[in-house]
Every structure is written in C-alpha cells, then in structure tokens.
Amino acid sequence: MKPAAFDYVRPASLAEAIVLLSQAQGSAQGSAQASAQGSRGDAPIDVQVMAGGQSLVAMMNLRVASPGLVIDIGRLAELRAVSETADYVALGACVTHAAIEDRLVPDPSRGLMPSVAANLAYRAVRTRGTLGGSLALSDPAADWPATMAALDAQVVLRGPRGERAVAAVAFATGIYQTVRAADEIIASIRIPKLSPQGRWGYAKFCRKSGEFAESIAAVVCDPARAYARAVLGAADGPPIVLPRTSALLAAGKAAAADACKRALAEDLGANDFDDFKASLHTAMVMRAIGQVLA
Amino acid sequence: MTRVRLRVNGRVTADDVPARLSLADYLRDRRNLTGTHLGCEHGVCGACTVLIDGEPARGCLTFAVACEGREIRTIEGFDGDRIMTALREAFHRHHALQCGFCTPGMLVTARDIIARNRAGSAREIRKELAGNICRCTGYTNIVAAIAAAAEAVKKEESVE
C-alpha cells in the first residue's frame, strides 16, 4: 500500500531536529508515542523520527504507523560521525549496517559487528538502515539490540534536557518500547573494545536468509576485562541476559557441556517459553558458546 | 508539495512531489521509467531495487523527497555498463526469467553482487539474492545466469 499523507522536514542539525521534535511533541499534546511503532495500537502517532526508514517506511506503507510529521535525520553528518577512545568506539546513530559490514567504520568487536551486519536483512536494506534506527525501534527479532546488550554498549540519547547514556541492556523495555523519551533522539552508540583475548559467538535461526530471526544468541567473553555475557534475542520481548550461563562463561567453566546446559535451562526456565522455543533458544545459545570456545 | 531535484540516469530532474510519494512511484509516474516495478511495497520482494548514489536500495522504502540531490540509476540507465551487458546476455541464454516482473530488481541486485565480488559460489549468490523474490523460475536459472555473468566479467577483465 501507499502511506497516508504526512509532513516532512529534514533539519540541518541534530540540535534543530531536537527542537522540531519537542515542538511537535508539545503540539501533539502527548498523543505521540515514544517508541517508533504504535504499540498503543489505536492511538494515532503524530511524530516520527526517521533515520534510514527501512522499518518505519514499511510500517507506514502497511499503515501500521501513520505519523503526521516525519523528521528525517538520516542525512545528518554529525550522526554518521565516528570517534574512538582507548576503551570504546562511538558510532553515530545513523551509521548504516552496510558501513559496518564493509568495515568503513572502526570495529570494536573483533569481527562480531561486521558479521552481524552482513547477515542482517538484505544488502538493499543495509545500505540505508541504521544502527541507531534499529535500536530506537527495538523490534524484538532484530539483531542489534541483542548484539549491543552482549557487548555492553551504551546508547547515548540527546534531548532538550541534554545528553544521557543508557546501558544497551536496559534500553529496550518491551516490544517496540524503550527508555527513550518522546523528545529524545539517539545520537550515538558507545561500544567497548574487546581485548585481543576477547571472543564472541553469534547464532541466529531464520527460516529464510535475511528474514527477522526466530532466535538469536549473542555471547561475548573477554577474560582480560573479566567480562562475559550471554544474551538471548528474538525472545518475544527485549533481549534477555542469561545470568547463570554468563557466570559459567566468566568462570571459564562453560566447556562442561552438561553444566552449561543445566545453567541455560535454569536461565530459560525463568521465562515462559513453549517447548519448541525453549529448544530453539537452547540450540542457538549452545551454538554461540561453541564458537566462543572453539 | 516539496521541490525535489535529482539526477536520474544522468539527467537532472526537478519536480514538486508530495512527501508520501515513494522513489519508485516517482520514477514510474513522474519520470515514466516504468522498468522499476512495485511488488510488495514493504521491502520484502526486491522488485523496486534501484541504485541511490551507486548503492542498491528499495525504491518503495525511500521517499522521493528524502533523495534530494541524489544520483538515481534505474534499470533503464545501464547502457554500456559492462556487468549489466554480461548479465543481460546471461539472463537471456540461461532463461533466467519467465514473466519478467522481478527481473529489473534481479538485474540491479545481481549487478551489485558481481560488483562487490559476492558471486563466488551458487550458495553465496543465493544468500545475496535472498532479498529478491521470483515466483516463476524457482531461482535455479537466475543463479546460473549470475554465475555465468560473473565468470564472463572476470574473463573480460583478465584479458585487459
């Protein structure tokens, strides 16, 4: 289908975008939804921030989203900027999946992020879709929320009250729901650098290449930084950190497959998965752990 | 209405368009470039794939207004392009189309696959082609044609 009519603005800076967003939120008197999709169902969405538009425009074409105003931030150079410290790489929110895939931006993850990007949707989507846009939408089945949680990234939000950083692991709060306030925009994502000893595993299950996943396991283990985290994605909600499995990895005891499966069963048991989903998630996590240990 | 200026297949254009007009509809309805097809209109089928500044993109998931100043290349814009010439020949020889609806998107994507050197094996081609749906051929002949075109381009380059 075609999208409903809307107004379109392309601000020249992030600061201008934030002003436009605040003004529009004010005039919409709170009927705009903080998340990128109308999880409220019947309430109209009045303002949407568009990065690459690869989810938003599809939703608009399907009339799942019908914003009255679209603020296009996709071409802001400051949101494509990249910076680096000794500890982390900060990628602008509008860095595309393709730029990560092609290693046009520094990779703090020793190959995890380029690998995830290369297997995300399709090339013609990756050339326009962005890291920040994916996090802002926080589709439960998307790759970046789980990957960023596993890497312990920070999502940097900017709004009228200034800037704040939120741990990626706490960023999504529900299906298409995040802690981003309605007048905030994701500016960048800070991703800690893996040490040379750092290892990762990533497994996802899709029935067709490039489709949204039915299960995602992202495992990062970095002994030099005393860091280990196993995260489950595509789990019908925000990414889930698996505490017992992560602890086994941190203790260097994940090679014992039986102990590992027991810990994982306990972690998964805390959630309400049916037998099929539980076995699918188990298979993906064990596969990702296998890659870490290989 | 917003004035949008583009370069479409090398020609400078300027049109007043509503924000909701997709790039694909703009190309078809305003520029009469009907080679770009719209199938699903939500980014799944790939029939509307065109190049924006040389990179493949979904014409249905891009608004024309958002393309201000961009260079657009459609299936009509590949005269004299070496990879596309090889692909046309290979699609013909391998019978890589039946109804032809998906073919413009297939060709634009296939050209990108070869240009990025991702046509190393049938498996790799199939993975790269996963975002383009064909309901006629069963893909076998399309994959064979892309492999043959990649081979032909490589041979041509080694001669030079």
Kindly list the characteristics that best describe this protein:
heterodimer, A: 294 residues, alpha+beta, Uridine Diphospho-n-acetylenolpyruvylglucosamine Reductase, domain 2, Uridine Diphospho-n-acetylenolpyruvylglucosamine Reductase, domain 3, Enolase-like, domain 1, 3 domains, 5-stranded antiparallel beta sheet, 10 helices, B: 160 residues, Ubiquitin-like (UB roll), DNA polymerase, domain 1, 2 domains, 5-stranded mixed beta sheet, 5 strands
Assembly classification: heterodimer
Proportion in helices of chain B:
25-40%
- Low-confidence runs of at least 5 consecutive residues of chain A: 30-45
Distance, first to last CA of chain B: 50 Å
- What global shape of chain B is seen? globular
Class by SSE composition of chain B: alpha+beta
Helix count from the secondary structure assignment of chain B: 5
CATH class of the largest domain in chain A: Alpha Beta
- β-strand number of chain A: 14
Q: Report the CATH architecture of the largest domain in chain B.
A: Orthogonal Bundle
Total tally of structural domains of chain B:
2
Q: Which topology of the largest domain in chain A does CATH recognise? A: Uridine Diphospho-n-acetylenolpyruvylglucosamine Reductase, domain 3
**Could you tell me the number of beta strands of chain B?**
5
Structural class of chain A: alpha+beta
Rg measurement of chain A, Å? 19 Å
Helical coverage of chain A, percent range: 25-40%
